[in-house]
Task: structure prediction
Amino acid sequence: MGSAAPKVSFGTANQIEVLIALEPFLRQQTAAHLERRKLWFPNDLSPADEQEGEQDAGELARVREAARGLPDPVRVALALNLLTEEGLPHFHRLIATHMGNESPWSDWNNLWTAEEDRHGCVLRDYVRDARLFNMGALERMQYRYIEAGFNPDWQQDPYRLLAYTSLQERATQMAHANTGRSCSQYEPKIQRILAHISGDESRHYAFYRAVFGEVLRNDTAVALNSLLKVMPALAMPGHNITDYDHMSDVVRRAEIYGPRHYQQIVEELLEFWNIGGLTGLPAEGAAAQEKLMKIPARLQRMADYLDAKAAAERTFRFDFVYDRPITI
Ligand SMILES: [Fe+2]
Ligand SMILES: [Fe+2]
Result:
């Protein structure tokens, strides 16, 4: 516990002013989000009612049988997606502490959290129903993951939060969609579940990138510098857990999600926000713009390097899949 007085809101006085001026836009985007979304519930996809139909019981047996065929790298991807979703308490806290808890932002944060909460629930329901893991080992890992906390070094900058969520929503959208595709030939139900989740993520992505775009319009040079602090590498809760790194490596080698996907996301957002086309910037804005435009090439070099290294197979073992060797 620090001895400093608690902070009610983060950001500089000017940033807070920009964010307050943004409130009508925020309300409008929230309304547009509610308009677009189709609310679904885990029980729609994996029914667990007292009064179950005969069909539900048969479906459970079918899923469990078919899921035996899921290859271990796909199981690792599912475990990683599940952990990422279960990091929700930290993400909720970061939004609350960076955007304030007594503003339209808290309405958005609560709405967003309610939507996200279903993702961890429905994935957990599935992996439990399908008997995909050594569940106790997975639960211990989830415990460590959440217990490790997540405090990215954002220097109390609310713009970094908005840049981060834009990137992160698209990254999870891709990871879920690609994992679903890798599962479909073995067990189609999980693809359906992942499609529901990735549909949510793409709407969240549309929301955050629109809001950060508005911040960019209103406070361009400062926003560019915030973006530059976040974009080169996307930190995740749990990045300090050894197994987590190895899981990311397996998922990258399985071509489900890795630096090439992240590069694509970065390029997409630089283009969407027209970062390269911004003109008339003050010196510190122009310097950030130049560095931002160099990120894709750097990510590509990193991806090339990792791919060259991955040309040699490597064997991984995870206790949540009974330490079976995964050579990939
Ligand atoms: Fe999610
Ligand atoms: Fe999301």
User: Anything to note?
Assistant: Residues 116, 169, 172, 200-201, 204 surround fe (ii) ion (ligand 2) (CB under 6 Å). The chain has one domain: 9-45+56-327. DSSP finds 15 helices and two strands in the chain. The beta strands are 315-316, 326-327.
